[in-house]
Amino acid sequence: MAVGVIRFDDPAGVGAGWASYNGESAFRIRSIGDLDTSKQWIVDMIYPAYRNAKLWNIPHIKRMDYLRVKPGALALELGIDGNTSTKLEKLSGIYGKTAQILTEKYGIDLADPSPTASHALKSKNPPPTCRVSPKFADAVANAVIESTQESQNGTGKSGAGTVPIGASYPRGAYAAYLLSQPVPTNVDWSPVRLGGGSKKIGVHNGKSVRGTEDFIEKLKSRASEDALFFEVTVLSMPAQFAKHSTFGVGANTARRWATLPEIVHLSNFAYLELSGGFRTGMTMLDQVSDHIDPTISGGIAAEIDWVSRCLPRTQDGFNPIGAYLRAYDRVACASAANELAAAGYQIASFGTGRVFVYANPNDSRLDEHFLRVGLMPRPIT
Predict the structure, then answer these.
(1) How many CB atoms are closer than 10 A to CB 127?
(2) What tens digit of pLDDT does each residue of 164-211 get?
(3) CA-CA distance, 181 to 177, in Å (whole number)?
(4) 35 half-sphere exposure, CB direction, 13 A CA radius
(5) Sign (positive/negative) of CA torsion 212, 213, 214, 219?
């Protein structure tokens, strides 16, 4: 099953507009009544307007981020120009191929009432059953939940004449990288105790704290077998990093825990105190490479896949695999963000394979910097 794209003449209303299905010629519609209900349609409309129009209650009309990348963002990213009908034809062709890949390779039924394709795919990737002693089950759940963060936000006021401009890692390659990393098994949880009750590591006053290198190497040696979650306090961080990497800024909950990948990353520039933690085993995800298609549509489908594995598995947000995948993602994005910040750009946010900076749209240097850090530049216009 493929999908179509619709855009109403009134961006905030439901009425006449344009539609295109699976890359075919766009056509005018008088209302949603002109849409074939046996097909799925992505509506190019911001979510508040979508909700107010009660389109969420119509099974064959999907919200604009159903396939992760919104139509306007995808058009901007790929340099798709032209009038509305031309844009919709190109976008529906890309989305149609994405839908085909999701159906054939991932087994998604696009008629599923889930709010997004990632939610629909979540049931296809069930996590292993959690096995943990009742005496510290709540503490483990809290450690995992507080280690999970989707997006890191910057701080401070944006400069005059600047707007947020984003760039992404190539989706397919990035998904392949993330999904090839080891992830927690979620079984046989046990406490991790530190000598003396805590350990201070990292960088303090511009110098590496004594014992940091040996401690980090010891933890890394366990990384292929143990997924590690530590209670952490950030004692200090240099201003140039605090502007965009202050611990927990952008999280949905107050954070006092972090996974090993994030601890290793933070220890390169921040002064940390660890206060023990928990461990579980490590494993690899199955048959990931068999699913990834090398096309633009395949990259979108692969991003939907890895994001689906990060979605909460319980009402309170517990998902150890998601905590680790999100940590790998933030660390990779932070690497690019650090270099862009060093080049003089203010970081707006980063996560899910993207970095947003505040910049003048006419900045001729920006795309050179995006390329230098491995991100996709804006299309040439």
Answers:
(1) 18
(2) 999 999 999 999 999 999 999 988 899 999 988 999 999 999 999 999
(3) 7
(4) 28
(5) positive
